[in-house]
Amino acid sequence: MLSVIIPVYNERATIAEIIRRVDEVPIDKELIIVDDCSTDGTRDIISQLVSKYPVTVVRHEVNQGKGAAIRTGIRHVRGDMFIIQDADLEYDPVEYPKLIKPILDGKADVVFGSRFVGGEEHRVLYFWHSLGNRFLTLLSNMFTNLNLTDMETCYKVFRTEIVKGIALEQDRFGFEPEITAKVARTGCRIYEVGISYSGRTYAEGKKIGWKDGVKAIWCIVKYGLLR
């Protein structure tokens, strides 16, 4: 079974739609929503969705960040693999089957969904944001000795037993370089699969900023040097 962890913070415009899309994917799955203390009415919408969809809902009483929400979600995972799903519609759940295929085929322990490989469609947006993602991936690869093309992608699938034994610390977007460095250190089999991407603008609610990029560099160096 695939567990889908959905960290949510102030996503009232999209939360119902992403839950509908995830629910419609024709695979054996469970949905785990972690509401990171939303204040825009998202919590009320989630309460209404519980009666319509088979979901597990966990709530933070204080906003802690995406990484903290994912850690909370991992504690509730019952599936033998799990994926992280943002609630903002940038990533399409219809791609779950191809993302989990390398694991189901016995080839992989972890699968990254890359926005930069393959011929999948993607929305054209910010040059500097794209360049920043590529730089962070390159820097991460230098420390992990991997050849990933998209370390910062939301779509990462893990065999649950791999991550259950890893102590995670980062509360915000530093989760991405931290988990990448720590799974690389296990020597597990990592695959990439090309995915589509419909990025949103800051006016549409995108939350990551330049300060998160600086923190990502710090995390890459910190977890890349730790042994």
CATH class: Alpha Beta
Identify the overall geometry.
globular
State the low-pLDDT regions, or none: none
| Main sheet: strands, sense, barrel | 7 strands, mixed
The assigned CATH architecture is Alpha-Beta Complex
Q: Provide the helix percentage.
A: 25-40%
Number of domains: 1
Question: What would you say this structure looks like, in words?
Answer:
This is Glycosyltransferase family 2 protein. It comes from Geoanaerobacter pelophilus. InterPro entries: Glyco_trans_2-like (IPR001173), Glycosyltransferase_2 (IPR050256), Nucleotide-diphossugar_trans (IPR029044). This protein is an alpha/beta fold and 227 residues long. The chain contains eight helices and seven strands. Helix content is 39%, strand content 16%. The protein has helices at 15-24, 42-49, 66-75, 96-104, 127-144, 160-164, 175-186, 210-225, and strands at 2-8, 29-35, 55-59, 81-84, 110-114, 156-159, 190-194. It has a seven-stranded mixed beta sheet with strand order 3-2-1-4-6-5-7, with helices on both faces. β1, α1 and β2 (29-35) form a beta-alpha-beta unit. The model has no long low-confidence stretch (mean pLDDT 91). It has a single domain, classed as Spore Coat Polysaccharide Biosynthesis Protein SpsA, Chain A (Alpha-Beta Complex), CATH 3.90.550.
